[in-house]
């Protein structure tokens, strides 16, 4: 039976173990083919990685079958989950050797021109003023761990890895980032920079 003819949710939930196992094998084939195409040419992805991404993708899809709402093809939805697995793991691998000390040191350097250039948002006066205020707020209003957490986000480090490096819980890390963003927003407000100014500066 062609992939497009399978009623994936029903077949993957089948009480017949043989039927369900066959559907899982079909799903693995679909995911692995899609991942191979999407990640083609990446030097950091081997066949072993493709196998791992595929297996983890299958596990997550089976656990989330109730979340499929039929707004797209099932295979499109499933491939999105598998790709998210792959890219999250590749980001985690990229940063796996980063220490808390290194991340905090980078956070401390966020106020240096080398990290955020004066003309990072453009050369006009309003944009350069926004960068200057952001630098000042980062330096004066954030704790070292808040700067480290923001740096991790800016570098697309997986959130769970940021949590692990900070040695805290997910809820505590979320609060840390929320408080940091609120502090920056407050400083911008005090400097007379409005939401419209920020939107204009970032061309939002």
Describe this structure in words.
The protein has 204 residues and is mostly helical. It is built from ten helices and no strands. The protein is elongated. The relative contact order is 0.08.
Task: Please name the defining characteristics of this protein.
single chain; 204 residues; mainly alpha; Rna Polymerase Sigma Factor, Chain: A; 2 domains; 10 helices; 68% helix
Could you write a compact summary of the structure shown?
This protein is mostly helical and 204 residues long. 68% of the residues lie in helices and 0% in strands. The radius of gyration is 22 Å and the shape is elongated.
Rounded to an integer in angstroms, the radius of gyration calculated over CA atoms is 22 Å
N to C succession of SSEs: HHHHHHHHHH
Helical stretch tally:
10
The low-confidence parts are none
Please state the overall shape, judged from the principal axes of the Cα atoms.
Answer: elongated
How many distinct domains?
2
Outline the biggest β-sheet. none
- Average pLDDT across residues? 82
Q: How many strands in all? A: 0
Q: Give the proportion of residues in helices.
A: 55-70%
Please indicate the percent range of residues in DSSP E strands (runs of 2 or more): under 5%
**What distance separates the N and C termini?**
47 Å
Class derived from helix and strand content:
mainly alpha
């Amino acid at each position: 039976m062609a992939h497009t003819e399978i009623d994936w949710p029903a077949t993957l939930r089948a009480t017949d173990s043989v039927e369900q196992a066959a559907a899982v094998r079909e799903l693995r084939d679909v995911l692995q083919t899609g991942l191979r195409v999407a990640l083609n040419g990446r030097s950091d992805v081997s066949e072993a990685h493709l196998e791992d991404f595929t297996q983890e993708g299958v596990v997550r899809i089976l656990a989330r079958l109730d979340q499929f709402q039929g707004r797209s093809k099932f295979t499109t939805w499933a491939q999105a989950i598998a790709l998210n697995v792959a890219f999250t793991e590749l980001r985690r691998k990229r940063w796996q050797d980063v220490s808390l000390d290194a991340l905090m040191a980078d956070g401390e350097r966020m106020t240096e021109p080398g990290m955020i250039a004066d003309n990072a948002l453009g050369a006009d006066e309003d944009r350069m003023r926004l960068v200057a205020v952001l630098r000042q707020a980062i330096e004066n209003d954030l704790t070292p761990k808040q700067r480290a957490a923001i740096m991790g986000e800016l570098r697309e480090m997986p959130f769970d890895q940021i949590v692990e490096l900070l040695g805290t819980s997910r809820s505590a890390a979320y609060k840390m980032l929320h408080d940091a963003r609120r502090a920056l927003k407050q400083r911008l407000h005090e400097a007379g920079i409005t939401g419209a100014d920020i939107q204009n500066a970032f061309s939002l």
